[in-house]
Amino acid sequence: MEEYLNPTYYIDSDHPAVVEFANQNTKSVDKEIEKAVQLYYAVRDGIRYNPYSMEPGKESMKASSVLDRGQGYCVAKAVLLAACARSQKIPARLGFADVNNHLNTKRLKELMGTDVFVYHGYTELFLNNKWVKATPAFNLELCNNFNVKPLEFDGTKDSIFHPFDKSGNKHMEYIKDHGSFADLPWETILAGMKKSYPLYFEDLERRLKDFSEEALKENQ
Question: Which of 185, 177, 172 has its CA nearest to residue 79?
């Protein structure tokens, strides 16, 4: 389990800000599983989901950088949760899958050119002698704006996206599993995204938008 407990370049679980954030959000509980649950909700709702925040630079994907910005997309938030868990001596790794996301804003879909999100990221935590998936991507406010149920996590079973929204419409489908990793394979992920979404990376200004506000306007 050592490789899932040690800090890395991206999962910088020894960074003072990450350690402080994790300590603050686990100080009221003692059990490992309770700490994992507290950290999940701290990252889910304390860090805004924003796919426009994606940047190609390595530095931007470090857990401490994500925490400092207070926002990130699914992979960035998964990295932060993994770092927080490792700081509390909970083994953690990253998992990736291509997903078909039926809930997308018009603007983002135009930039991406598809509903398929390649290398969607989540965290896997080793609790009670088994790996459990935790997906802290969509914060509560965003879920409400999209009319989808917020994703809960109890530390005992996998927490992946609901297949349907509150109205029974398709929400998300997992279409390809990329496996689990002890650290972030950023070069591979970035290459896959640039190949899939060339227009997205053409202009930084396109990403300086509020995704939550977009979702609210389109789903009112």
Answer: 185
Tell which residue, 218, 48, 57, has the closest CA to residue 146. 218
Question: Comparing C-alpha atoms, which of 149, 98, 153 is closest to residue 124?
Answer: 153
pLDDT digits (tens, 9 = 90+) for 108-167: 777 788 888 899 999 999 999 999 999 998 888 777 777 778 889 999 999 987 666 667
Give the closest residue to 174 by CA, choosing from 84, 102, 88, 80: 102
Can you tell me the distance from the alpha carbon of 11 to that of 190, in angstroms, rounded to the nearest whole number? 17
Could you tell me the pTM of the whole model? Answer: 0.90
CA distance 78 to 204: 23
Q: How many Å apart are CA 133 and CA 126, to the nearest integer? A: 9
CB–CB of 63/42 below 8 Å?
no
